[in-house]
Amino acid sequence: MNITRREALLIGAGGAVMLALPSIAQAKGLTEEAIASFTGGAPIAEGGVDLNTPEIAENGNTVPVEVSAEGATAILLLADGNPTPGVATFHFGPLAGSSSASTRIRLSKTQNVVAIAKMADGSFAKATREVKVTIGGCGG
Amino acid sequence: MISRRDFLQATVAASAIVGASGVGNWGRLAAQQKLTQDQLLAFEPMGNVTLIHLTDLHAQLKPIWFREPEINLGVGDVNGLPPHVTGQDFLNLFGFEPGTPEAYALTYLDFVALAQGYGKMGGMDRVATVVKAIRAERPDALLLDGGDTWHGSYTSEQTAGQDVVNVMNLLKPDAMTAHWEFTFGKDRVDEIIETLDFPFLGANIFDNEWNEPAYEPYKMFEQNGAKIAVIGQAFPYLPIANPRWMFPNLSFGVRQERVQEVVNEVRESEGADLVVLLSHNGFDVDRKLAANVEGIDIVLCGHTHDALPEPVQVNNTFLIASGSNGKFLSRIDVDVEKGGMKGLRHKLIPIFSDVITPDPEVAAVIDAEREPYKAELTEVLGKTDSLLYRRGNFNGTWDDLICNALIEEREADIALSPGFRWGPSLLPGDDITREDVHNATAMSYPAAYRSEMTGETIHTIMEDVADNLFNPDPYYQQGGDMVRVGGMGYSIDVSKPMGSRITNMTLLKTGEAIDPAKTYTVSGWASVNEGTEGPAIWDVVESYIKRKGTVSVDPNKSVKVTGA
User: Fold this and answer.
1) Measured at the alpha carbon of residue B306, what is the angle toward residues B303 and B309, in degrees to the nearest 5?
2) Cross-chain Cβ contact B239/A58 below 8 Å
3) pTM of the predicted protein model
4) Among A34, A81, B83, B510, which one has the highest count of C-beta atoms within 10 angstroms of its own C-beta?
5) In this structure, are B318 and B459 located in the same domain?
6) Percent of chain B whose predicted confidence (pLDDT) is above 90
């Protein structure tokens, strides 16, 4: 698994990026833009991507995310409600034992985590999971 | 509402609430003044495996009043399905008559009159009698404790759960899982586990640094040649619903894939013939999990305090709901052969405290645990004119009393009281002792805060809590019941999505609409935030009750519910 330096910095800089705070409409637009630039506008199938997140974040500042897609050469991970939706792009070379990755991300509020896998044959597949970020309390 | 016929098709025909003589029998027995211990315990044994399920005791060692909910709404696919059936609908569904012991034990109908007739429920000395009687017949029967056991009383608070642990140990449980136990802090939980003769199970509890299992996931047992796997599932939302800082290194979650992995492991590597999930998920989460995970035979459900006289079947999995506060115990006999479960018989045994003889050994230990605190426990603070109860989706009178106390004692415009499901009831005319107040408030984070909030913030909180209860996907419901509100009325449409359920928020003292931009003084308790300041909630309530002498709580008409 490779993670580019720019994207690694992006993960690390999540807290600082928050200060820029683009609007939600912008975030949605940015998500679509990121997907379009990853796929080049090619159609995206559902299925074939395993995306594992908690249903409800225990701590929105560090939400564990696992993604795998057998045969994928790259997986784009997005958080569509964050001011900066881009999380990471994982690249898998021919020597990678499996096309899977796990990381922890910050989620500013309840939103979808989206994973798009680019397969070896050039096709794309997608998985989406809603992660709820709640105020908490009142558990009886 | 589903029809009774449909529901029975979805359950096991062999199950019966009172032995072989069938459903609807307590009432007849009571009328003949023959409601006896033998009748309550009567059970036609079957198969080779017996399980005993006790859950959500909330440290109630002595018999209590406990009024079942009047409002228990199910949303989405589970609307109108058990356990979201109350009152007369419940009686109709299971074929019980009003005024019977079943009606008293299982519904809120005529609660005060029936309580006076049938007496208190529960008491661990009575529970011990039932457990011993079952074990006399089935020596290898497994006693499985679903958690929320150590927390919820004055003495458990004083001893950090030790009083309950000492009493439970006499019953020799075979395994337990947990929820509120962790609000004593992880260190305290681990300290107690060290002393237990039985495993503390939680397949879904992970170390959040390395994402490794933090507690034993399951335990294998053998009974008459059958291999039984008991898998523990702790409350999935502990770090969200309760203070995360009390167990900062632990992660929970439903972890459906993990449950499937563990089921596969016990079936394939351990050769389990019967797989039991000892769960603190809550009923709707268990129902979804049972539908999505292959290979669980029985789910022993906890957390949501539901008492169902018959199992609910989901595919090949049977869900058993055994109530709370020591009010009930479930006995489940199972016929297990190589290759699986061939039959199941179940009985929800009601612990009528005046009918079941206390076990003298356990009764003596309970009294010894209480002795050092006797003066504090029994001090009468005042009296109640009203029935005090908590359980239900919206305001209960205990919380109305707590909210009134917060508003007056803390000089607030609006009061918030968490929608806990624990907390026994008191009858009109009862004295209110210190023990009673702590039964409704005992906890390790009791500070009654007082803060300024804008109308918009209050709305956000209300919407957030409502979604924790009314999200149509049970995996996204982390909460207890709806937060209870004093000083403010509101309307709620439970069928709407998050953000648009709560409308018409009104400040009751002026009758004016809540202004999103205006600031209000809000007092509440049980904040999950570390460092919350304020007096303990029980001191606030105590000083209010002492000042009033006799408290009365008017019926709460300030919450309008639609969409159910």
Assistant:
1) 140
2) yes
3) 0.90
4) B83
5) no
6) 90
